[in-house]
Amino acid sequence: MTPKAELHCHLEGSIPPVLAHELAARNGLALPDGLFGPDGTYVWRDFLSFLAAYDRVCSVLKTPRDFSDVIHSYLTRAAAEGAVYVEMFCSPERPKALGISYADWVAALADGIDRAGRETGIVGRVIIICIRHLGPDRARAMAERMVAEPHPYIVGFGMGGDEAKYMPADFAPAYRLAHENGYGCTVHAGEVLGPESVWAAIKALPVTRIGHGVRSIEDSALLEELARRGTALEVCPGSNVALGIYPDRAAHPLHRLIASGVRVTLNSDDPPFFHTTLGTEYEQAGLPEAALRRITRAAIEVSFVDEATKKRLLEGVPP
Ligand code: ADE
Ligand code: ZN
């Protein structure tokens, strides 16, 4: 099995329907209306209704143990598909709304990572992610909290949410704080919006990676700039096709992005929402084994894990 590494998967977006049912039942919560279709899968129509469905799934999370179990569950499933390293995007918004302290939430995530590591050998780390449409003040507060209460498993800072809201420059103070304190930085851009969104992100923010960034393919000067900077793209083809950004995998620019010389990684984003997994992304990439291994090595190289762990992980994935 090809060894795999993943840099772009959202904690709440990793919850499969069966786990959402389990969490709701054990927390005595009703599942939100309209979350599931007749076939039992999540229902949404477009990018914004996907974000709304994603928020509804968050409502099944109630206790620190829930967060621990969700990350443990994802990491063990990813390990079964050959993942050796996963960076999870984790948003402090839901635990905050529940009155769970940041320290308790981080400890719960670390416990889930440790359990998965003991059981499967997988290495897991966390990227604290802010939500663009909630605005720069919330993002800044989140970065301040992350810096004030460091944990060795919290290695990066990122932003998801509605790409059409605010400008990357609005979030520069939050990102500057994260960067100056040694956190790796990434941002969703060039997913729903075009190359101008990626330009704005790389000009305003200290990012070494772009979440998605696939629409950079529409601008050859941008591709050159990304390659020159060594900025990596966290590419999620199944997500892009499910959200209608490309009609099918054949139309997806994955191969053209690789050919352009930009560093590319493969990821699942919100796997059960998009009927995919990390293993499926590798399988469906249409790339030979050697190219897939290069992608795994690239993901480890541009990951935000400490250098000693990076070196050890790379030794396990010979070119
Ligand atoms: N949050 C979860 N998945 C996302 C995506 N694909 N784009 C933006 N924000 C997200
Ligand atoms: Zn994402």
Count every helix, treating DSSP H or I runs of 4 or more residues as helices: 14
- Looking at the structure, the CATH topology is TIM Barrel
**What summary fits the major beta sheet?**
8 strands, parallel
What is the structural class? Answer: alpha/beta
Strand arrangement in the largest pleated sheet: 1-2-3-4-5-6-7-8
Termini distance? 14 Å
CATH architecture: Alpha-Beta Barrel
CATH class: Alpha Beta
Range of helix content: 40-55%
Q: What proportion strand? A: 15-25%
Overall mean pLDDT = 97
Name the helix and strand elements from N-terminus to C-terminus, one letter apiece. EHHHEHHEHEHEHEHEHHEHHH
CATH superfamily: Metal-dependent hydrolases
Poorly predicted runs are: none
Name the hetero compounds present. adenine, zinc ion
What is the total tally of β strands? 8
Task: Describe what this molecule looks like in 3D.
With 319 residues, the protein is α/β, with parallel strands linked by helices. The chain has a single domain (4-304), classed as TIM Barrel, CATH 3.20.20.140. The chain is built from 14 helices and eight strands. It has helices spanning 17-26, 47-58, 64-80, 93-98, 102-120, 136-148, 172-180, 195-204, 220-229, 237-242, 254-259, 278-283, 289-301, 307-315; strands spanning 4-10, 83-90, 123-131, 154-160, 184-189, 209-212, 232-235, 263-266. The protein has an eight-stranded parallel sheet with strand order 1-2-3-4-5-6-7-8. Strand 3 (123-131), helix 6 and strand 4 (154-160) form a beta-alpha-beta unit. The model has no long low-confidence stretch (mean pLDDT 97). Bound molecules: adenine and zinc ion. Adenine (ADE) binds next to loops.
